[in-house]
Amino acid sequence: MCMAHSTKSSVPDPTEFEIIERYFMPLASAEGLGLKDDAACFRPPSGQDVIVTKDMLVAERHFFADDKPEDIAFKALSVNVSDLAAKGAVPQHYLLGLSLPKQYAEHGWLEGFARGLGDAQKTYNMTLVGGDTVSVDGPVCISITAFGYVSEDTMVKRSGASVGDDIYVSGTLGDAAFGLRAIQAGQGQRARFLRQYHRPLARAGLGNRLTSIATAAADVSDGLLADLNHICSASSVGARLYQAKIPLSDDAKNELAKDTSLWPLILSGGDDYEIVFTARSKCTDAVAKLSQELGLQLTKIGVVTPGPGLELVDCTDKLVQVAATGFKHF
Ligand code: ADP
Ligand code: MG
Fold first, then answer.
1. Which domains does the chain have, with CATH numbers?
2. Could you point out which of 33, 97, 197, 307 has its C-alpha 20 to 30 Å from the C-alpha of 126?
């Protein structure tokens, strides 16, 4: 396998403590006690709940081992922020668990990784407060636990959708899946697709604005159908989606114009990190206003039904039942 980082510097590989001191201490805030204690300590402002999430990224499963370390780090934090945003939380802090095979514990890779992490935490206004670093024989594994705050009792759950609610999704869908497909096929591909796959930007700014609007929400990590189905199962409802309303980038539209058999990638491909949410139909104006304020597309793509299951009104106006297939790990 090609290891993009295998050009070893002449400086000897760092030890665990050198890694922490040189690469992670600069990313830490006071709550992390300088990464010199056994644990971190922080307190949410009064009237706030703490929302906690963890997402693990494993080489050759969630990213390619020779991806740029900057991108791997950026994505590792983004996928966690995406979960916080989907729950209405403002990101605050994170813990970093890092399993590193020996050949990655070298300055070139770590510098890139720390740079990407620094970019990401600046983007999301978060700080590192601790973690654990271990050397392994297995693949690189990055396990981040992220903490965010939300006003007491306003977390947006998966379970709050009601029949008749509208279904919305942020941004556009499918670009990351097109990016992954291009990489797997060894094709050159549009930069937008690759960027969306390698360096997704979580909707941190949207999340907290949803607490007063959304009845339920989830981030689109495993694919629209799968993640919407999570909302439906948790809320004991179904959903009807309108295929013609699914928001697409111009590049994705071009691809689909050439080959309509790519539609399942749009509906079921993972890694979009957009937010799918439901809202009462009386909130239409509020959602439109929010979309304008954030400069972010929020598109009505369907409606909550008694269910069970998901149905799709396809581009020829035919109603079809769809399986909630998304990315499944097992
Ligand atoms: P322990 O012996 O309790 O496991 P460690 O020696 O692993 O503690 O860690 C020492 C300090 O360094 C702790 O504050 C821990 O949170 C921090 N730390 C270790 N690894 C990381 C990491 N990957 N990212 C951030 N902080 C880390
Ligand atoms: Mg300890």
1. 16-151 (3.30.1330.10), 166-322 (3.90.650.10)
2. 197
